[in-house]
Design goal:
Structural class: alpha/beta
Low-confidence stretches: 105-137, 271-276
CATH architecture of the largest domain: Alpha Horseshoe
Oligomer: single chain
Number of helices: 32
Helix content: 55-70%
CATH class of the largest domain: Mainly Alpha
Number of domains: 4
Radius of gyration: 32 Å
Mean pLDDT: 85
CATH topology of the largest domain: Serine Threonine Protein Phosphatase 5, Tetratricopeptide repeat
Strand content: 5-15%
Distance between the termini: 72 Å
Shape: globular
Largest sheet: 6 strands, mixed
C-alpha cells in the first residue's frame, strides 16, 4: 500500500483538516481578545507557534492510533513510519524557524488622514482613564514624548528660546511617519516635573521619553539631550551639542537629534524628509523675535492675539524674506478675524501675508497648514482647506494639529459624526490638549450624546491648567440639550474668567432661562463690551434688555430697547452687510417690535449669506435664534413645523428641552402641535447627573 493510501486509511488527512480549522479559529479569537485582555504583544505570536508545533503532533497521533468501535488501537506497523517521522520533524523545524528567524511584523506609524487610526497599536479611544494613555494594547512602536527643555541660560527671560528649540524638534520628529510623537500641548504640563519617567511614559502612553536642556551664552548655545526607555529607565542615547548660535546651526542640531532618536527607536528618517523644514531666515534677531511670538501664541482673546501679531510684525521687519514668520503672522490675523473682529481687513491682510510666505517657500508643510486654516476660517472654503491639509500632511504625518483641523472642517461642514475619527487620532497624539479634549466634549454634545460628553469632560477636567471657558463646555451642553440650568450655574460660579471667550453669554442665558430676570439684568450690565461680538453672535446690550423686558411683560420698555438695538445693528451692517450674526439679531429686535414680516425677511437674508449657508454650526445657531423670533409673531402650527424641521438636523447646539426653556414659547406650549413635538423630541427623563 502506498504512503498516500495509508494516510487516507488512517484518517490523517481528516485529522489534519480538522486541526487546521480549529487552529485558525483559535488564532482569530486570541487576536481579537488580546487588546481587551491587555496581553503582551508576543502572546498571539506564541499561540500561533504552539499551534504550528501541535499540527505535526496531531498528524503523528492520527498515524499511530486508530479509533475503532472496540476502542483506540495502536498501529504498530513500521511501514512508512520513517517517512512520517521525517515529515513531522520538518514541520516542527519550519515552525521554530518561523518563530525565531522571521521578525515580528511591525505596525506602521501615522498613515493617511482619511484611513484608519494612524497611531500604531491603537485600538480604541476611551476617556475613562484620567491620567494614563487613552487606550492601547501596548505602547505604540516608535512612540516618544519630548519633555520641555530646561532653560540653563543665565537670562531669566530665555525660557522662550528653550521652548522654541523644543517646538522645532517636535516638528522635525513629526515629519517621520514611523514615529508617534506626543504633541506640544500635552508635554508642556511636564515642565520641571518630578515624576519618575516611567510614570510620565505611562501617562502619555509612550515607549520612550526625551529630556534635554538649553544653555545660551553670548553667541554660543549648548543643547543636552538624552533618550530614555520609559519602561526600564535605560538610556538609549545621549549627546551634548556645543555650537555657534545661529538659525542654521540650531536647525542642524535639531536634525541630528531627530535622526539619532529615529535610529535609536528603529525608525530611521528618510534622507530627504527634513529638507522642507529648513529655517526660512538666517537673521538671528528675526529668529529670536519669531521664537518670542510663537511662545505667546495660541490664545483666542483679542488683546493676546494683537500682542502676538505685533511681535511677528517685528520679526518680518527684521527679515522681509522670513517666510515662516509671514505665515504665522497671517495665521494670527486669521485668528483675530475669526474669533473676534470678523473684519474683512484682518482677513484680507492675513491672506496677503500667507501668499507672500508661500511664494517664498511653496512646499513648506507648516505654511500649507496655515493656508488650510485660512481657507477654513477666513473663506469658508472647506474643500480647498481639505486639499491644502492633504498636502500639509505629507510633510507633517504625525501632527495632531493636522488631524484636529480636519475634524473641525468636517464638523463645520455638517459632518459631525465623521469628524470624530480624526479627532480621536488627535486625542492619541495630544492626549492632554485642551482644544482636543474640549472638542470631544463639544462634538458629542452637538450629537446629543450627553453620556460620552460627560466622560470626556471628566477626563478634560482631570488635566491641570484647563481654562475657565473649557470648564463650562459640558455644563453648556447639558443646558442646550437637557434644559439643565443648575449645571451651567455651578460651572460659571467656579469659572469666573470667561469674558472674551464666547462662553460669557451664558452668564445671561442661565438666569434668563430659569426666569431669574433680575439676575439676567445684572449679567447684562456686567458685560464689559457693548455689543458683545463673538464667533457665533453679535448682541447689543439693548437687545438683551429688550428680551428681558418682553419676558417680564413690560412691552413698552421692550420696544424702546429693541429700537435702540436696531440703531446699533444697522450701524454694524452698514460696515459689513454680509454679517449674518447682526442680521439674525436684527430679526429678533424686529420681532419684539411686532414687525413679523420684516423679521422673516431679515432672518431669511441672514441664513442665505455665506457665513450661514456654508457654515453648518453657524446655521444651526441662527436657526435656533430665528425660532425665538418666530415665537413672537408666528402661529403655533407654523412654529411647531419649523421647530420640528430644525430638531431633525443631525447635529446642533440647542435641542428641544433647552430651547423650550425660553419664555417666548409660553403661549405655544399647550397647543396640540407642541404637545406632539414634546413627545417626539423631549429628553426630560435624561436629566440625571451624567446624562443618558
Amino acid at each position: 500500500m502506498t504512503l498516500f493510501a495509508e494516510l487516507q486509511r488512517r484518517k490523517v488527512f481528516k485529522v489534519g483538516a480538522a486541526y487546521l480549522v480549529v487552529a485558525w479559529l483559535l488564532i482569530q479569537v486570541v487576536a481579537t481578545l488580546a487588546p481587551q485582555l491587555q496581553l503582551p504583544d508576543w502572546a498571539p505570536r506564541l499561540v500561533t507557534l504552539l499551534l504550528m508545533v501541535g499540527f505535526p503532533v496531531a498528524l503523528l497521533l492520527a498515524w499511530m492510533l486508530d479509533v475503532t468501535p472496540e476502542g483506540v488501537k495502536s498501529e504498530t506497523s513500521a511501514a512508512g513510519n520513517g517517512r512520517m517521522y521525517a515529515i513531522a520533524a520538518a514541520l516542527v523545524a519550519a515552525a521554530l524557524g518561523w518563530y525565531f528567524l522571521v521578525p515580528a511584523k511591525e505596525e506602521k506609524g501615522p498613515e493617511s488622514i482619511s484611513g484608519a487610526s494612524p497611531v500604531t497599536g491603537a485600538t480604541t479611544v476611551s476617556p475613562e482613564n484620567d491620567s494614563g494613555p487613552i487606550s492601547s494594547s501596548s505602547t505604540p512602536p516608535g512612540s516618544i514624548a519630548v519633555l520641555p527643555f530646561a532653560n540653563r541660560s543665565a537670562e531669566a527671560d530665555s525660557l522662550y528660546f528653550a521652548d522654541g528649540i523644543h517646538d522645532d524638534l517636535l516638528t522635525q520628529l513629526a515629519r517621520n511617519p514611523a514615529l508617534v510623537v506626543i504633541s506640544r500641548t500635552s508635554v508642556m504640563g511636564y515642565r520641571d516635573t518630578t515624576k519618575p519617567l516611567r510614570q510620565v511614559g505611562a501617562e502619555l502612553g509612550v515607549g520612550a521619553v526625551l529630556e534635554g536642556s538649553v544653555q545660551r551664552a553670548g553667541q554660543r548655545v549648548r543643547i543636552n539631550a538624552q533618550l530614555i526607555d520609559a519602561a526600564t529607565d535605560r538610556h538609549l542615547w545621549a549627546e551634548t551639542f556645543d555650537r555657534e548660535l545661529s538659525p542654521e546651526t540650531l536647525f542642524a542640531v535639531q536634525s541630528e537629534i531627530a535622526a539619532a532618536i529615529s535610529t535609536a527607536l528603529g525608525r530611521e528618517l528618510a534622507a530627504d524628509s527634513g529638507q522642507v523644514a529648513a529655517p526660512t531666515t538666517s537673521n538671528a534677531a528675526a529668529y529670536d523675535l519669531f521664537l518670542r511670538a510663537r511662545a505667546q501664541a495660541g490664545s483666542r482673546v483679542d488683546a493676546d492675539i494683537r500682542r502676538t501679531i505685533a511681535v511677528y510684525r517685528q520679526a518680518v521687519a527684521a527679515d522681509p524674506a522670513f517666510a515662516l514668520a509671514m505665515g504665522e503672522l497671517g495665521l494670527e490675523l486669521t485668528n483675530l478675524y475669526w474669533f473676534n473682529t470678523r473684519a474683512a481687513t484682518d482677513r484680507d491682510e492675513a491672506r496677503l501675508w500667507i501668499d507672500r510666505a508661500l511664494a517664498l517657500q511653496p512646499e513648506h508643510p507648516r505654511l500649507r497648514y496655515i493656508l488650510a486654516r485660512h481657507l477654513y476660517h477666513g473663506r469658508l472654503d472647506y474643500e480647498g482647506a481639505l486639499a491644502e491639509l492633504a498636502v500639509a500632511e505629507q510633510g507633517l504625518p504625525g501632527s495632531a494639529d493636522v488631524f484636529m483641523l480636519r475634524s473641525w472642517i468636517l464638523r463645520r461642514s455638517g459632518r459631525a459624526l465623521e469628524s470624530l475619527e480624526p479627532m480621536q487620532t488627535a486625542a492619541l497624539l495630544d492626549p492632554r490638549s485642551e482644544e482636543v479634549l474640549s472638542g470631544m466634549v463639544e462634538t458629542y454634545g452637538m450629537l446629543g450624546d450627553v453620556g460620552n460628553s460627560a466622560l470626556w469632560n471628566e477626563r478634560m477636567l482631570a488635566v491641570p491648567g484647563m481654562h475657565d471657558y473649557s470648564k463650562v463646555t459640558h455644563a453648556q451642553h447639558r443646558l442646550l440639550l437637557l434644559g439643565d440650568t443648575n449645571a451651567i450655574t455651578v460651572a460659571l460660579a467656579s469659572a469666573p474668567d470667561v469674558h472674551g471667550t464666547g462662553v460669557e453669554r451664558y452668564l445671561f442665558d442661565a438666569p434668563y432661562l430659569r426666569r431669574d430676570f433680575p439676575g439676567a439684568t445684572r449679567a447684562i450690565e456686567a458685560f464689559p463690551e457693548d455689543p458683545l461680538v463673538r464667533q457665533f453672535y453679535v448682541l447689543p446690550k439693548s437687545l438683551l434688555r429688550a428680551v428681558v423686558a418682553r419676558a417680564e411683560g413690560r412691552t413698552a420698555a421692550a420696544a424702546e430697547h429693541a429700537r435702540e438695538a436696531l440703531v446699533v445693528l444697522d450701524r454694524i451692517l452698514a460696515a459689513d452687510p454680509e454679517d449674518p450674526r447682526a442680521w439674525i439679531s436684527k430679526a429678533r429686535a424686529l420681532a419684539i417690535l411686532d414687525r413679523g414680516d420684516e423679521a422673516r425677511e431679515v432672518a431669511r437674508r441672514a441664513m442665505e449669506l455665506p457665513g450661514a449657508a456654508k457654515d453648518f454650526l453657524n446655521l444651526a445657531t441662527y436657526r435656533a435664534d430665528y425660532l425665538r423670533a418666530m415665537a413672537l409673531f408666528a402661529e403655533s402650527e407654523e412654529l411647531a413645523r419649523e421647530m420640528d424641521d430644525y430638531l431633525q438636523m443631525p447635529a446642533k447646539y440647542w435641542y428641544y428641552d433647552g430651547l423650550m426653556l425660553d419664555p417666548v414659547f409660553d403661549p405655544h406650549r399647550a397647543h396640540p402641535a407642541f404637545v406632539a413635538l414634546a413627545k417626539r423630541h423631549s429628553r426630560a427623563d435624561s436629566m440625571q447627573e451624567g446624562g443618558p
